[in-house]
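Quick question, first post here. What does this chain look like in 3D?
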Amino acid sequence: MPDKEMTADSGQVETFTFDREIAQLINLFGHMFYTNQELFLREMLYYISEVLDKIVYGSGTHLTRFDLKKELEIKIIPNKKDRTLTFIDNGYGMTKEDLVENLGRSAKLEAKEFIEKIQPGADLFMVSDYELSFYTAYVVADKVTVVTKHKDDKQYVWEASSGSSFTIRPDNGEPLSRGTKIILHMKEEFIDYLEPPKIKKVVKRYSHVITYTIKLLVEKKRDRELDGGGEELPATDTEEKEYSKYKIEEIGDEDDDDLEEKMKWKKMKETHAIEGESNRTKPLWARNPDEITVNQYKELYKVLTNDCEDYMGLKHISVDGPLGFQAVLFIPKRLRYHATRTNKNPGVKLFVRRVFVMDTWDSFLPEYLNFVKGVIDSEDLSGTITCEMLNRNRTRMAIRQILVDKCLDLFDEIAENEESFNKFYSEYSVDLKNGIHEDPMNRARLSNLLRFHTSFTGENRCSFKDYVGRMKENQKYIYYIIGESREHIINSESVESVLQRGLEIIYLTAALDEYTMQAIQEFNGIQLMSVCQEGLVLPLTEEEEKKIQEDKIKFEKLCRVMKKILDEKVEKVVISNRLVGSPCCITTPQDEWTLNMERVMNSRRLLGKKHLEINPDDSIIEKFRQKVEVDEDDKTVRDLVLLMFETAIMASDLLLENPQANISRTHRMIQFALGLEVYMEESEVQMDERTLDDTYDSDDDMDDSF
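> Answer (accepted):
Ran it through. C-alpha cells below.
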C-alpha cells in the first residue's frame, strides 16, 4: 500500500515505490551523458507522439469515441525564470491508476533489458522502447512533474526526483480540459535548452516523422515609446491589433523629482506569449529526395526503428497519379529478431495524408520482407480504414506490389557491391529463401540474389549466374547437394563421379535449402539436379553409355539377390553411375525427401523409400557377383550385404533401425578376420526386427566362401 500524507493546498499525497528496474533506469539516466545532449528532447517528442499515435490508432473507425475536433498537438514552453521546460499534449491524459502503472511499473521488463545492454559509463544514443523514452528526462532534469487529466478521472499531479519513489496527489491548480503536461525541472548545466532558438533548431532536426503540430510558446518583450509627458505614444493600427490584449508593465520605481526627465521618450517593456509552429515543413518522405541529406535520412531511420546503428540501404519512393503515395524504406544493418523469424513486430508505419493510421508490416509487405523498416504515406486510402478492410482494399494491393518491386530493386543495388551484399546476405539469406516459397511472382528475381558455396569457390560464395557462366560445354544441368555440413558433403559418396568429371557442385547446408531448391527447379531454363537422388544424368561418352548397359546385364542377378536380402529396406537395387571409390550408396526417388531432409525431419530415422546403388567397378561388388553366380543363397553374402547396407546408412548420417544387429554382424566379421570360431545364438541378433536363423556351420564354410 502507498504511504499517504496531507498537504494544505493539494489534498492527499500518496507515495509509491518504483519497480526496482525503473528506479535503476532513472538513476542510470541521471548519471549518463549523451554525446549530443539534445537527443533527450527528441526522446521526449517521440514519447509524446507515440501517445498521440495510440489515440488515432486506438480510435480506429470509431473516432467519435474520442473528441478529435481539436487538432492533436504538442506544445513546448521554456521558462528560464523557473528553470523549467514543459511539454503539453491534448491526448487522452492518464487516470491515477495509469500514472502508477505507466510511469512507475509497466516498463520494468524493457528497463531490465535496456540496463543489461548498457555498459557502465556508456554513451546513450538511442532508447529501445518508447515507454523508456519518458525517463530520459532525468538526463537533464533533477525532478519531473506530470500534470494530467483523463475524462474518466480527476486531475492529478505525479512527481519524482531521481530516487526510488514517486508521489501522486489531486491537483487543484489550473485545470486541463484533457491531456498531459510534463514539466522538467532542469539541472543547472542544461539551462541552455531553455533558449527558444536552440529548442526550435533541435525540434526541426528531429521532427521528420512526427506529424502532429509542435508549437513553441515563448515570452517576448517589445519596446514602446512614451512622449515627453510620460504618455504612451499612439500605437499604429498593426500594433494595436497585435498587442492590445497584453498589459504594458512599467519598469522600476523612479523618484517623483526625476520622473519628468526620465519619462522623455522612454521605452517601455511588455511581455506576452506567442506561438510558433516548429514542424510545419513537409515530412521528409514527402519531400524531393534531392533536397534531403544523408544525415536527415539517418535521423529518420533512427526515429522509426530505435536502432543505434545506421541503415544498410534505403529506397525513397514517390508515386503520382491515381495511386498517389510516398514511402521511405530502410534495410537495417542487422537482423533485430531471432532467426526463426517468428517476430511480428511492425516495421512500417502507415500514414494517410500525413496523419498516422497504424503500425503495419503484413498489409503492405509480405512476411519474408518483415525486416524492412520505413514509412508509407497514401493519398488515396481512408484514414478510418480497419485492418480487415485494408487487406481487401485494391489500392493497398497495388501499393504492396510496387513496394515489393522497389525492395527487390534495392537488394539488386546492394548486390552491386560484393562486400556490402555479403553482409546483407549473412543477415537476410533466410528471408530471401522464404520469399522463394511465399512469392512465386518474384521467384526468378529472388533466385538471382541467392548465394552459395560450390566445389569451385572454396570459402567464397557465388550466384546461379556465376555458376552458369562456368558450365562445361556438354553440361545440361546445375548440380547441387544438400547436407549437414560442407565437410560431410565433400566426403559424400554421391559426389565422387561428378567431381571426377570436373563438374561444379553447389554445396547447401541449411534445412531450408531443401524447400528452396524444390521450389526453384530451374534457372534461366537450366534444370537443377540433386546428385543424391535417383536419375542422376551426367555428360557421358558413347563408350561410357555402352559400358553402363553392359554392367546392367552383368550385375542383374546380383541386384535381384541383394533386393531379396534387403527386402523392404529398399525399393530397388541398381547399378550406379555416380560412384568411383565406394562400393555402394543410398539414394532416394525424385518425389521423396532427400536423405538430408529425412535426417532433419525425422531425427535421422530411415523412413521413406530408398534405393541402393552399387558400383560395378568396385572389387567388393565384383566378388559378391561371383559368389551369387555360384550360389545365390550363400549365407555369407547375406550377412555382408546387410553389413554393407548399414554402413551406407551411417555414411548418410542416418540412424540404424536395429543397431544391435549391426554390432553382432560386425563382431562376427572380426571373429572371422582373427580366425576364431564364429558362433551365434539365435536370440542374439535380429535383422529387420525378426530373428536371424542362419548360423555358420564351421570355419571351413567361411574359408570356402572367400
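The mean pLDDT is 78.
The chain has three domains: 3-216, 284-432, 542-705.
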